[in-house]
Design goal:
By secondary structure, the protein is α+β, with helices and mostly antiparallel strands. It contains 24 helices and seven strands. This is Zinc finger SWIM domain-containing protein 6.
């Protein structure tokens, strides 16, 4: 996912007005015993000694604070402290790098032709191969900027390729990438992967320097002049016109550059106002989705779009803000598909495969707006966005030509404001209607909070609550809610990396459906003669509710070790348990029942 243009200059200005030569000498002397050499100070992973307090603090600061805030908070930052903050600011896990350089992190990949391909061709695998072959050289970290060269060996058909790669990062996230290979794809190219993994796996072999503004501040006038003249001499054909232009502006007292205090530094990290998120090439996402849609389901484009949806779910599971951002880009391209207008004019319906893509789009937006830790301003922004798409004439209906016959999502809910009566009389319901209605849902209900957060929540723990509708006869909690809505909550919890919470709520829903079945069976037995006289020969079928639930939680049950269920918690679902609450450690009968439900739903017509 390398950019095709050069990186823009830093967004913030750097100056060191609080420093002087005396204090800089003093700080180096005072911190010498603690810091030592920058090349050896704490950067070797081979040491077995306890981690220093400096490293512990620097690691926490590097994760949460933009470096500008650190500079503004403290008048003087000792050089060893700066070095450790800069050192710990680079991503430490390969998982996110893999996520941004391949379609999935361990499953079967689909090549550009839609066919299964050798995983060695994937950017992440190719990057690992380049790293392990010793093709990464000249690695240098200057502040929050990493650069190096990656050599791709010659093949029988291609000559050797040497790529210049640079990576900017902030708070353990890669925020910008540039590679001279000219790669045009959604994901990071193999050369960016190789350089990034070199820094993750071999940090002690990377030359580390402070931001360039700090280095310049240590120079006197003669050193600065020599530095500039040598820089111009080495790169005179590229920088001489720019250097002369800047010199003219600096010498002019009324120029704009002299009205600003400080100067930009592309190696000094992000400003306080910058959004902290992983680099995502929005233009490439839009172009790729537009290309797949234009192929009309041919050449594996449907598989590619489903893989993009899977990538959104993977980002949500990692609690990455780019999940909603990427889905927004995909939705914009779906709404701009010219076939929607053509089908509307001709009065024809879309194909089943295309219909399934739209259904998945709507389901993903349900997951996003039902994020249990979503901020109100975020939900408000998504609601305005969804309403804008919903108001477009060609927006697909929720259920083909019968969308207006479906019930409102917020009907018969035990919490939250009642459904908007206007939505009941709307002429049609689109694929975004349920997500719009889900914006009215919340997670503050005390009973719901107990269900999803406690392992031992039963009516025996709350003797003052005698409401029989909240617990079954065994004392296990129930959750009464429109079944598709409740299942959407389970899907949202699982998608956002909360497998334990999703399983607890799923068990409560299962117990609720069981109780409803028992009540209907009792009613049927009590009024058997009357019902048979009316021609009713069986109890009301709850199959729709069971199938909906099994589709929502089947993935979680089929991966009881928590790995496939998603999330970073790695929840475990044991087959049998007598001491744990049924919400997490469910019995073998319950597990088999849920697996059976999933199997029956997959085999149902």
């Amino acid at each position: 996912m390398a950019e095709r243009v050069q990186q823009p200059p830093a967004k913030r200005l750097c100056c060191r007005s609080g420093y002087n030569a005396t204090c800089k000498q003093g700080q180096r002397a005072a911190w010498a015993p603690c810091g030592g050499s920058a090349a050896t100070q704490g950067e070797s992973s081979k040491t077995q000694s306890p981690e220093s307090l400096l490293d512990i603090a620097a690691r926490k600061v590097a994760e949460k604070w933009p470096f500008q805030r650190v500079e503004e908070r403290f008048e003087r930052i000792p050089e060893p402290v700066q070095r450790r903050i800069v050192y710990w600011s680079f991503p430490r896990s390969e998982r996110e790098i893999c996520m941004y350089s391949s379609f999935n992190t361990g499953g079967e990949e689909i090549g550009s032709s839609g066919e299964s391909s050798d995983d060695t061709r994937l950017p992440f695998r190719r990057g690992i191969g380049l790293l392990e072959s010793g093709c990464v050289d000249n690695v240098l970290q200057v502040g929050f900027h990493l650069s190096g060269t990656v050599r791709e060996p010659a093949t029988s058909s291609e000559p050797e390729l040497v790529c210049n790669v640079s990576v900017s990062f902030d708070r353990c996230k890669i925020t910008a990438v540039t590679c001279s290979c000219g790669n045009k794809d959604i994901f990071y190219c193999a050369h960016v992967v190789a350089l990034s993994l070199y820094r993750v796996r071999k940090p002690e072999q990377v030359k580390l320097r402070l931001p360039i503004s700090e280095t310049l501040f240590q120079m006197n006038r003669d050193q600065l002049q020599k530095f500039v003249q040598y820089l111009i001499t080495v790169h005179h054909t590229e920088v001489l016109p720019t250097a002369q232009k800047l010199a003219d502006e600096i010498l002019s007292q009324n120029s704009e550059i002299n009205q600003v205090h400080g100067a930009p530094d592309p190696t000094a990290g992000a400003s306080v106002d910058d959004e902290n998120c992983w680099h995502l090439d929005e233009e490439q996402v839009q172009e790729q989705v537009k290309l797949f849609l234009s192929q009309g389901g041919y050449h594996g484009s449907g598989k590619q779009l489903n893989l993009l949806f899977s990538k959104v779910r993977e980002m949500l599971k990692m609690r990455d803000s780019n999940g909603a951002r990427m889905l927004t880009l995909i939705t914009e391209q779906f709404m701009g598909d010219p076939r929607l207008v053509l089908w509307r004019q001709q009065g024809t319906t879309m194909t089943d495969k295309y219909r399934q893509l739209w259904d998945e789009l709507g389901a993903l937006w349900m997951c996003i707006v039902l994020n249990p830790h979503c901020k109100p301003e975020q939900k408000g922004f998504w609601l305005r966005q969804l309403r804008r798409w919903n108001s477009v004439d060609v927006c697909p209906l929720e259920d083909g030509n019968h969308g207006s016959e479906l019930t409102n999502l917020t009907n018969a809910l035990p919490q939250g404001p009642p459904g908007n009566p206007d939505s009941l009389t709307r002429p049609h319901r689109t694929v975004f209607t349920r997500a719009i209605e889900a914006c009215d849902l919340h997670w503050q209900d005390p009973h719901l909070q107990h269900i999803i957060t406690e392992d031992h929540y039963t009516n025996y723990c709350y003797h003052d609550n005698l409401d029989s509708s909240l617990f079954d006869a065994r004392g296990w909690p129930l959750w009464h809610e429109h079944v598709p809505t409740a299942c959407a909550r389970v899907d949202a919890l699982r998608s956002h990396g909360y497998p334990k919470e999703a399983l607890r709520l799923a068990i409560a829903i299962v117990n609720t459906l069981r109780r409803q079945q028992q009540k209907q069976l009792e009613f049927f037995r009590t009024h058997e003669k009357e019902l048979l006289h009316k021609g009713i020969t069986s109890v009301t079928n709850l199959r729709v509710g069971w199938v909906t639930l099994s589709n929502s939680i089947g993935h979680t049950i089929q991966h009881p070790d928590g790995d496939g269920a998603g999330g970073q918690d790695g929840a475990t679902v044991p087959r049998t348990s007598q001491s744990c609450s049924p919400q997490v450690a469910i019995s073998s009968d319950d597990t088999d029942m849920l697996i059976g439900l999933q199997s029956s739903s997959n085999n149902s017509p």
